[in-house]
Amino acid sequence: MKNISVVILTRNAEDLIADCMDSVSFCDEVIVIDDYSTDRTAELAKLLGASVYPYSSESFAKKRNLGLKKAKGRWILYLDVDERVSPELARAIQSVLERKKDIYAAYRVNRKNFYLGNHEWPAMEKLERLFKKSKFEEWYGELHESPRVNGDIGDLDEGYIRHYTHQDLTSMLNKTIQWSKIEAELRFHANHPYMSWWRFFRVIMTAFYDSYVRQKGYKAGTAGLIESMYQGFSMFITYARLWELQQQNKGIKKK
């Protein structure tokens, strides 16, 4: 059995896949779950030694679960194609692999976001990304997936994943168009309260405040302001779509 497998989710990322795979060169196996890319992503991944499995789904959980099924390693690391493992985090992961006995079934790792080029976001995230396969059950959740683990979860404080998200306005807007529809449908089917006019102001301002103030986006300068305003805009589109669904289904009970 291989010691560690990395599962990478991809779609039309021919400019990203090589750097992503290079950052996990310490892994014994690379599994790429490719959402039927129309560029050379799958081809390049294969040339670089990855096992590529075409699979299309709007559910990230289903994609990650396919990776779990295909991976042969004792440990599994999950990565998106726009993410990179820092050398410090790579060493921390390797130290986990060298332990003869480990009390944890999974580990949370740090993730640092970079917006609109190389603008570093002030707030650091912690995400469950490293799992002992024998203790890992599944990913669940339609949009914002979560792991189900049989055991305790520890923290790796050394290093971080570098996440190059929202690198240009076009990709940001395309993401909103794609995912706002799914998020609106999920809220609609969960019987979200009727979208009165005042709710729009609340969701927009809440999103902006969370990004610009609570996460200290103001420290990122102009890029931080743009990203925070975008978060408010993205929430507006999601809830406008929800309002549209509610208008199309007048029979739903207003709350």
Provide structural commentary.
With 255 residues, this protein is an alpha/beta fold. The strands form 2 sheets. The protein has an 8-stranded mixed β-sheet with strand order 3-2-1-4-7-6-10-5, sandwiched between helices. Strands 8-9 form a two-stranded antiparallel ribbon. It has helices spanning 17-22, 41-47, 60-70, 87-97, 169-189, 197-214, 221-248, and strands at 4-10, 29-34, 51-54, 75-80, 83-85, 106-115, 119-132, 136-140, 146-149, 153-165. The longest helix has 28 residues, at 221-248. The mean pLDDT is 95. It is globular, with a radius of gyration of 20 Å. It has 2 domains: 4-165, Spore Coat Polysaccharide Biosynthesis Protein SpsA, Chain A (Alpha-Beta Complex), CATH 3.90.550; 169-248, no CATH class.
| Number of beta-strand segments | 10
The helix count comes to 7
CATH class group of the largest domain: Alpha Beta
Query: What is the CATH superfamily classification of the largest domain?
Result: Spore Coat Polysaccharide Biosynthesis Protein SpsA, Chain A
Taking all Cα atoms into account, the compactness measure Rg is 20 Å
- Tell me about the largest β-sheet: 8 strands, mixed
SSE string: EHEHEHEEHEEEEEHHH
Distance between the termini: 55 Å
| Poorly predicted spans | none
CATH topology of the largest domain: Spore Coat Polysaccharide Biosynthesis Protein SpsA, Chain A
The structural class is alpha/beta
Helix % is 40-55%
CATH architecture of the largest domain: Alpha-Beta Complex
- Tell me the strand order in the biggest sheet: 3-2-1-4-7-6-10-5
Shape: globular
Q: Give the total of domains.
A: 2
How would you state the average pLDDT, rounded? 95
Report strand %.
25-35%
